[in-house]
Design a protein that fits this description.
Elements: E1 18-25, H1 27-42, E2 46-53, H2 60-66, E3 69-72, H3 75-80, H4 82-94, H5 98-127, E4 130-134, H6 138-147, E5 151-155, H7 174-203, E6 222-224, E7 241-243, H8 251-255, H9 260-267, E8 272-274, H10 278-282, H11 284-301, E9 305-308, E10 323-326, H12 331-334, E11 340-343, H13 347-356, E12 360-362, H14 369-378, H15 393-404, H16 407-421, H17 425-437
Parallel strand pairs: 1-2, 1-4, 2-3, 4-5, 5-6, 6-7, 8-9, 8-11, 9-10, 11-12
Helix pairs in contact: 1-17, 4-5, 5-6, 5-7, 6-7, 11-15
Length: 441
């Protein structure tokens, strides 16, 4: 495999290639890969996407609408163990320790499907020129090493060591001590992932390999799908990390129109939007409690609110004329008609709020959500994050009022949205993959 260094912008005229993509996680981990697969197809490549949806969400309609060949992995496991996984999710979310959360996520949501992912990745590698994988889906890198095909990881948040910022969930200790925090984070990641990687590599006859979670190199280049307008690339990162911008799939947004009832509610004035997205699909008890907090907090703050949740979750709550429940709507189309976005800090929802030019109140629960909450607050487009373990109606109402009473937050969010709109993360990502897979003439 020839080393590839990423630097600057990409303009590349590549031969048509077969590209295999594999992702795993919640909807926010899956949809960006659909956007990338669609962009690769439109560029003339043959793209095959396979995904493991931990929510057991079907993406057949999305696959058809954007013309992407896609298949689910591990659906039987997630479907047949739904109640057990809800209990596991509850235990994970109750943990105040990010390392403990990470271990539980791997044990309950990755390990049971890791071998199936590996077999799918090996099959893709046998017929593809390049493999592209979610950075946490370690079997993809192992399959690429076995097949000898180029591999690139896609990260949806900055997870690379730097003196300029701390790991997600850790307080910023400045340029002197942030590297120490990264050493600790690396140790945690190595301890969790290295044994799992070693087992699969040994089974395939591959030699052991040191795994450095927060480093990129010629054998492990990374495409970071984060807006450079939001996050400035640190000067101490490896050249093998390319910041390409958000991977946005807008096909559904352009065609969406609210039904008559929701349209009338929105026409009365921009409401607050509230949902914890994928967190609700993993834990019904969390969803019921949170929805009641949303309604109570909105009334305490004196605002109208659109609450997104499954229909059974809202049963028993009187919406009155100030609350509107929806099950699903394209955030890219709905958020511009709202005044403030209350969310969990998932990558997808965060991007939609930024692109809509709306300020946020972030209530992080796990993983990268802590990073996004801190990032939006630092940029002055969100209230200070409210930890999920401290969520109650009084505290949330105070955050909502604080954000709405400061028009400068929305003004900064609108300015940032204009900057993001000028970027083309998909084009940059496609060109980087083309550079990785190109062969000498």
């Amino acid at each position: 495999m020839k080393p590839v260094a990423f630097a600057g912008s990409f303009v590349y005229d590549a031969r048509p290639m077969r590209i295999g993509l594999i992702t795993w996680g919640t909807e926010g981990d899956v949809r960006p890969f659909f956007a990338l697969a669609q962009a690769l197809t439109q560029r003339g490549h043959t793209a095959e996407l396979e995904y493991a949806s931990v929510e057991d969400r079907a993406f057949d309609a999305l696959s058809a609408s954007c013309g992407v060949t896609a298949a689910a992995i591990g659906g039987d496991y997630f479907r047949n163990n739904r109640e057990k996984l809800h209990e596991c999710a509850a235990r994970s979310l109750e943990s105040a320790s990010p390392p403990a959360q990470f271990e539980l996520i791997l044990r309950d949501l990755m390990d049971p499907v890791a071998d199936e992912i590996l077999q799918h990745a090996l099959a893709l590698a046998a017929r593809c020129d390049v493999l592209v994988g979610h950075i946490l889906v370690h079997p993809v890198a192992t399959a690429a090493a076995k097949a000898g095909v180029p591999y690139v990881a896609v990260a949806l948040q900055p997870v690379f060591r730097s003196k300029h910022y701390p790991p997600a969930g850790a307080g910023d200790l400045g340029r002197v001590f942030n590297p120490l925090l990264w050493k600790i984070a690396d140790w945690v990641m190595r301890r969790a992932l290295s044994p799992r990687i070693a087992v699969q590599r040994e089974a395939l006859g591959l030699a052991p390999e040191r795994f450095d979670a927060s480093r990129a190199g010629p054998r492990r280049p990374v495409l970071l799908a984060v807006s450079p307008s939001l996050f400035v690339r640190p000067d101490d990162w490896s050249e093998h990390i390319a910041m390409t911008g958000f991977l946005t799939l807008a096909a559904e947004e352009s065609a969406w129109r609210p039904d008559a009832a929701l349209g009338a509610f929105l026409d009365r004035g921009a409401p607050v939007f509230a949902s914890f997205g994928s967190m609700f699909s993993l834990n019904d008890d969390l969803a019921r409690t949170s929805v009641r907090v949303f309604v109570d907090a909105a009334r305490r703050a004196g605002v109208r609110v659109v609450v997104q949740c499954a229909r059974p979750i809202a049963e028993g709550i009187d919406p009155g004329d100030d609350v509107f429940f929806i099950e699903r709507a394209p955030h890219g189309a709905l958020f511009p008609r709202c005044s403030l976005i209350v969310h969990h800090g998932g990558a997808g929802t965060t991007q939609s709020a930024l692109r809509a030019g709306r300020a946020s109140v972030v209530v992080p629960h796990a993983a990268d959500q802590f990073y996004w909450g801190d990032a939006l607050y630092a940029r002055g487009v969100a209230a200070k994050p409210l930890l999920s373990t401290r969520l109650d109606a009084k505290a949330l109402a105070a955050r909502i009022r604080w954000a709405l009473d400061r028009p400068a937050l929305t003004a900064r969010a609108e300015e940032l949205a204009r900057d993001i709109a000028r970027e083309d993360g998909l084009a940059q990502t496609v060109a980087a993959i083309e550079a990785l897979g190109a062969k000498p003439a």
